[in-house]
């Protein structure tokens, strides 16, 4: 499964746009630059994939920090307002999830009081899956409020986009890294050549 | 009933087809459809044949198997065989023209009530001497049903279904044994098929022939009830049935269908039928013609008849009209609504896990949710780390490159997309990125694609190209030749999006950054 061509195009376009606006000819420290580049890449990726929940969540998470906002605005343009608004449809499932979770905790407490922790193979397996699901929810942007099946769907989408992002950035690195062996004066550029 | 039938046959022999239609079934026949089926058969196509067959049925001694090529004749045979032990008619006569019957079904389908009325009137006309015919309406239905079947040894089918019945003497048909299975499956397919496509009336009529041997035990006043009683019998009978059909039909009956949800039953049944015996085209045409009504409605209605309880049938019939997926309880599984919902959920999750398995490299052998989730988490984390690392790299690269070039590159990249064409020597690299440090070659070519319009970068690429000659990947490119190939390579890069050598990147110590 690979990202579509249009996805890659939009991604690249916005990435370069953001790099031009945000990074080029600006006096930034290395780390700042790196952060800006990552931000650009993430935003471009999320923007290119506008149908998924994770993209919306990612942009929202990024826009929460004030220092990102200018860059976000420059990349997203008109869409900024739309994308940074919290998705209203999430609030209901969120409330439901909270209720469910509290209910589960309650029932779990009850069960725990009743029985010793049964070392049941099935329960161990189920527990392992549950903990890993929690980890995955933290990894995937916007995954906390999703149920298992949609979480997996979002993960799928997210993995595809991440892969495309990595490939694209790799290409960019190589493209922009070309003049380094000849033109570089500082030693650090050489470090990043394989 | 039998009397009526015989009378019908006799009339048919003497009269034209429209007259035959005027024949009705006696009032005591609760279901006029089967006879309608019989009635509808003759008016189609060749008129003399059905009457001939009927004549023969009346006079077993005069039976001429060779003439028995018609559907209606066939069903007459079945009627005969099923009814009376006195008849020594061979049953296994092929009925090669189901089309006629199907066509006959069509008008009947369109106006079931009218035909039923016809049948009602006709049955009363049968001579009293034919009392030895079974009075079961199911018998008629079965005859009608058999008339639909194409070719083969319905006699053998009959034998298999009603071994203890009077049909046993008819097991001597020459083709009986070999065709038994086929016929059975055919019958099952068609029967189920008919069930799926025909309205309830036809369903009841079609079902009853199958249950005919058992109908002697049950009194089927209403088609629905008879269908219901027939279902378990059918399921019990269907040991030799085509497995898919059997499972489809039997499951529906055996599970009791307490589940209020159903998966599009028509689709299941139809698919099974197609698999089961190679549906006769006639049956299909009949089905197609019959399907004037909404399929889900019909299916729901047929499924309703098949289900054990009318009430549940109503629920299920209402269900398909709604917009969500309906799940049928599988055989031997709990039909609790909770467990069904959970099963749906579990299936969804497993389906998505399979997709993810394809996506995450090296997960084809992994089974089990937890391990799979582990792999997925690892992969996502590694990808995120790579992004960070690459952004760091880009940060290092950036200050040295003029970003106007990037704008040019982007334009060119976006414009230069065309049909993907294989780049010489670089495709193997792309295919096996993990075997050797191919990304460099890859990126090199890709980069050259990007660089195409810009001279400065081209020079740089040449320089880098020469500097990277030490790598294993093939470096055949002459800088002049790049112009044509760069486009292709870029396209291929973006088109296939091959996973770069992420493992290599993962090993780099520099990739770690605190965030």
Automatic annotation (TrEMBL), chain A:
<dbReference type="InterPro" id="IPR059002">
    <property type="entry name" value="IBH1_N"/>
</dbReference>
<dbReference type="GO" id="GO:0006355">
    <property type="term" value="P:regulation of DNA-templated transcription"/>
</dbReference>
<dbReference type="Pfam" id="PF26576">
    <property type="entry name" value="IBH1_N"/>
</dbReference>
<feature type="domain" description="IBH1-like N-terminal">
    <location>
        <begin position="4"/>
        <end position="65"/>
    </location>
</feature>
<keyword id="KW-0805">Transcription regulation</keyword>
<keyword id="KW-0804">Transcription</keyword>
<protein>
    <submittedName>
        <fullName>Transcription factor IBH1-like 1</fullName>
    </submittedName>
</protein>
<dbReference type="InterPro" id="IPR044660">
    <property type="entry name" value="IBH1-like"/>
</dbReference>
From TrEMBL, chain B:
<feature type="domain" description="BHLH">
    <location>
        <begin position="333"/>
        <end position="383"/>
    </location>
</feature>
<dbReference type="InterPro" id="IPR011598">
    <property type="entry name" value="bHLH_dom"/>
</dbReference>
<feature type="compositionally biased region" description="Basic and acidic residues">
    <location>
        <begin position="1"/>
        <end position="19"/>
    </location>
</feature>
<dbReference type="InterPro" id="IPR024097">
    <property type="entry name" value="bHLH_ZIP_TF"/>
</dbReference>
<dbReference type="GO" id="GO:0003700">
    <property type="term" value="F:DNA-binding transcription factor activity"/>
</dbReference>
<keyword id="KW-0805">Transcription regulation</keyword>
<feature type="compositionally biased region" description="Basic and acidic residues">
    <location>
        <begin position="312"/>
        <end position="321"/>
    </location>
</feature>
<keyword id="KW-0539">Nucleus</keyword>
<feature type="compositionally biased region" description="Basic and acidic residues">
    <location>
        <begin position="209"/>
        <end position="218"/>
    </location>
</feature>
<dbReference type="Pfam" id="PF00010">
    <property type="entry name" value="HLH"/>
</dbReference>
<dbReference type="GO" id="GO:0046983">
    <property type="term" value="F:protein dimerization activity"/>
</dbReference>
<feature type="region of interest" description="Disordered">
    <location>
        <begin position="1"/>
        <end position="20"/>
    </location>
</feature>
<feature type="compositionally biased region" description="Basic and acidic residues">
    <location>
        <begin position="504"/>
        <end position="515"/>
    </location>
</feature>
<protein>
    <submittedName>
        <fullName>Transcription factor bHLH49 isoform X1</fullName>
    </submittedName>
</protein>
<dbReference type="InterPro" id="IPR036638">
    <property type="entry name" value="HLH_DNA-bd_sf"/>
</dbReference>
<comment type="similarity">
    <text>Belongs to the bHLH protein family.</text>
</comment>
<keyword id="KW-0804">Transcription</keyword>
<feature type="region of interest" description="Disordered">
    <location>
        <begin position="197"/>
        <end position="321"/>
    </location>
</feature>
<feature type="region of interest" description="Disordered">
    <location>
        <begin position="494"/>
        <end position="515"/>
    </location>
</feature>
<feature type="compositionally biased region" description="Polar residues">
    <location>
        <begin position="297"/>
        <end position="311"/>
    </location>
</feature>
<dbReference type="GO" id="GO:0005634">
    <property type="term" value="C:nucleus"/>
</dbReference>
